[in-house]
Q: What sequence folds into this?
């Protein structure tokens, strides 16, 4: 798994008007988080989609029996105040969903299984 974090940056600007008064303004660029998980082969017993980092489940985009393709968003996980779309690592059918919306999960917790 690879996690890339772009930290918040603050730029300060000082502007002076013709009367000698100055105004300081602040511009904040927000942080961005990108989570990449390695591609894996479908294992015996199904492929487990796991939480790449601790967070809260905010949406489950599939239900048991749904057919998914590699790259389809299956779960949305809020972590570090950012929503992360977790994708299927392989083509298959959703065999089991282990979490519900609102659940707090730890890193590497199994969220669902694809067969």
A:
């Amino acid at each position: 798994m690879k996690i890339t974090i772009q930290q918040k940056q603050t730029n300060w600007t000082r502007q002076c008007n013709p009367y000698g008064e100055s105004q300081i303004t602040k511009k904040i660029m927000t942080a961005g988080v990108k989570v990449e998980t390695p591609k894996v082969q479908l294992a015996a017993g199904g492929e487990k989609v796991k939480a790449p980092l601790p967070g809260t489940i905010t949406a489950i985009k599939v239900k048991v029996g749904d057919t998914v393709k590699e790259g389809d968003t299956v779960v949305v996980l809020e972590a570090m105040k950012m929503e992360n779309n977790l994708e299927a690592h392989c083509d298959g059918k959703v065999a089991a969903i282990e979490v519900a919306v609102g659940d707090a999960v730890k890193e590497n917790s199994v969220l669902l299984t694809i067969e």
Q: What stands out?
A: Residues 38-44 have pLDDT under 50 and may be disordered.
